[in-house]
Amino acid sequence: MKTIQVTRSSLPPLDEYIDEIKDIWESFWLTNVGEKHKRLEAGLKEYLDVPNIVLFTNGHLALECAIEAFELTGEVITTPFTFASTTHAIVRKGLKPVFCDIKEDDFTINTEKIESLITEKTSAIIPVHVYGSICDVFEIENIAKKHNLKVIYDAAHTFGVTVNGEGVGNFGDASMFSFHATKVFNTIEGGALTFKDKSLKNILNSLKNFGITSPESVEFVGGNAKMNEFQAAMGLCNLKYVDREIGKRKLIVERYMSSLEGIKGIRLIEPQEGVKPNFAYFPVVFDGYKYTRDQVFELLKKNNIIARKYFYPLTSNFNCYKGMFDSADLHVAEYIADRVLTLPLYADLELQDVDRICKIIKE
Ligand SMILES: *Cc1c(COP(=O)(O)O)cnc(C)c1O
Hints:
The chain is of the alpha/beta class. The protein has two domains: 14-239, Type I PLP-dependent aspartate aminotransferase-like (Major domain) (Aspartate Aminotransferase, domain 2), CATH 3.40.640.10; 242-362, Aspartate Aminotransferase, domain 1 (Alpha-Beta Complex), CATH 3.90.1150.10. The chain is built from eleven helices and 15 strands. It has helices spanning 14-22, 24-27, 35-48, 59-69, 84-92, 137-147, 200-207, 229-260, 293-302, 331-337, 351-362, and strands spanning 53-56, 75-78, 96-99, 122-126, 150-154, 162-163, 166-167, 174-178, 191-195, 212-214, 217-218, 266-268, 275-276, 282-286, 340-343. The strands form four sheets. It has a seven-stranded mixed β-sheet, sandwiched between helices. Strands 7-6-13 form a three-stranded antiparallel β-sheet, with no helix packed on it.
């Protein structure tokens, strides 16, 4: 029996990639903001419909660079219902994550609980558009304005998503996108920051290249987070197909929905009003179903179908953070993390496999 993984990377036709990388052999220019990097940056600026964008070698370092560029200090309010990267970026930059609970319906940060967590040390909010559900961006903007806080979105899951027709990267002070192999759009590894204030562009470009600002001047203690030309070439090829890939994902999600909707004890995320989704993930919450989440996970595994307990455990419960930060009021996040399972989803997943997965879950 073939194994179905939770995800599978999108690849362009091989000959198109080979064509795209051929001129690297003529230019001998492999990295450091080459021609492909520039073309991809321009292409993504247009696709994401944002005023400013800087590319990075991955999403995580993009997030760390954003934290550096905004010179954040003290405490950052964030969600524990996310991938390791979000919390690690905060901690690795010497800041304290202050965990806020999530909402029952779409698992994004609960804006009603943010203000009670703000102290004189708070410098920013780092929310996550988790699974592609959009945070309450308007309420977060109100809170941030009132308390003079920066907002950096972890938009790793929301490539190409729009809200009332506007690219999701336009909200907050900055948004981080990930182009990791497993994401809706990939550059093998890769990432980007989109941001409002155009004066950040030079700072970010310098931070990703050792803080170098000109051949004889280094103004920042920067690291190395540059996207190379092979990554950018993959991005150029994949960008041509991303709409088609999202279209295929849509059919798969619709198939899952029609098969699993309305079953007692199975909870799905409702579409959000005004949001054009990218169908990045298909999370299912088993809450009072005849099988527990862990039982469904094992059942699928026995059939060579690999689902993922995503996101479990909460980042606040990671061994490396045990007892370090307050996580008393995370009841909804704990509840969902114990019950959620993301089912296999990628553009070329066959509908008959979706049917088989649903049948196993239902019988
Ligand atoms: C993938 C991901 C990241 C990190 O992105 P990389 O490009 O792999 O560094 C950060 N946050 C979330 C929520 C992610 O899913």
